[in-house]
Structures are given as C-alpha cells and as structure tokens.
Amino acid sequence: xxxxxxxxxxxxxxxxxxxxxxxxxxxxxxxxxxxxxxxxxxxxxxxxxxxxxxxxxxxxxxxxxxxxxxxxxxxxxxxxxxxxxxxxxxxxxxxxxxxxxxxxxxxxxxxxxxxxxxxxxxxxxxxxxxxxxxxxxxxxxxxxxxxxxxxxxxxxxxxxxxxxxxxxxxxxxxxxxxxxxxxxxxxxxxxxxxxxxxxxxxxxxxxxxxxxxxxxxxxxxxxxxxxxxxxxxxxxxx
Length: 238
Fold this sequence. Notes:
Layout: H1 6-18, H2 24-36, H3 41-49, H4 57-78, E1 85-95, E2 98-107, E3 112-118, H5 123-137, E4 142-145, H6 149-162, E5 167-170, H7 176-189, H8 198-215, H9 229-235
C-alpha cells in the first residue's frame, strides 16, 4: 500500500483537527499518552483534568480514532528502511469478543517491518501481509517463520507467482525476536479489555505500532536531529 502524497496527508490532518474544536497541544498529548502508555481512557480523563482541562474519556477515544491513522500514514512515509532479513509471526487480539490476528514482522535488529490486523489466520491473510510489507520495504533476502503451514504456503506461493528470490527459514529459536516484540503491543492493548469493532482496532493498533516504532528509533528525523520520542510523535502533525 503506497503512502498518500504529502500535500494530501497534510490536508487530511488539517480537516480532522479543524473539526475537533480543542487546542492542538491538548489533543496530541492525550493521543500520544493513549498510544504510548498502559493507560485506560478513564486514566487519561483524570490525568488531563489534573492539568486543568475537562475532557470526557469518550472524547479522547474519538480523537485517537481520528488522529492516529493520519499520523501513522505520515510515519510510513518517513520511516527508516529495515534490513533484508525478516522475522514474521502473528499474535492474537480480541475484537468484539472474538480473537482476531495481528500479523507482524521485525528485521534482524528488532525494527518493525510492518503489521496487519486480519479477521482470519490463513494463507490469504499471510499472503496479504507479505505483499503489503514488500510494497513498503522492497523484497527481503530472508524470511524466518515458525512452522505454520499457512505462513509457509504464503511465502512459497509468493515466490512461485513472482519469481522473487527469497530464502525461507523455519526456526522457532530465530523467531523469538518477533515473539518478544509482540509483548510491547499486547501490554498496551491489555487495559483496553478488547476492542469493540474491527475498524476501531485497526486504527488504534496503527497508532500503538507507530509509537512503538518511534521509541525504537525508526523515524527518519530531518538533518539527523536527535529528539525525544514525544517530540518525534508531535512532528508527524506538522
């Protein structure tokens, strides 16, 4: 999936912020806290009230749904390249009382390659994840997975259909890197007690993954500037 042109991204964000009728710094602070820390919406309502701002927790949730997907799209355009050795795995996310599947991959340094929330765990879902990741980062030299039949079939069919030269490895030990990385995402989603709707889960997970990547130093900052994770997050809005 290609990123939106910069002018369109900025226009979309301006339209979103224009409709929300709150100071930009307040909205971005709440949304960043929500994406970055193990906090419930009620926690955020109380924390921002201590700063003299009265905001209902449902309003914060609405901000997150509107702002985080746009910032995630901006981040994809400014993301550092990853190495060409990927570790891929899927984890479980509860949506509407049912388990859905979050496909994720990291490179050999632990940097996030890509992620995709899907309703099913099958060949088609895995294939879609790989095609999306390759569209963002180009073709990897190696892909390491566990012994999942669906993931194996997806990589093999991708190689067969496209003629790409990709080495497929099946190793539980080597895949520990991505399994450990799942924990940061699961730790953040746990206080949410499951998402109610699939489209909401997709938007919020995009924001959580974006903040996670920023913390890992994956945002390409102008002129090599070194700034805090908070400042990098805010820079996506300007």
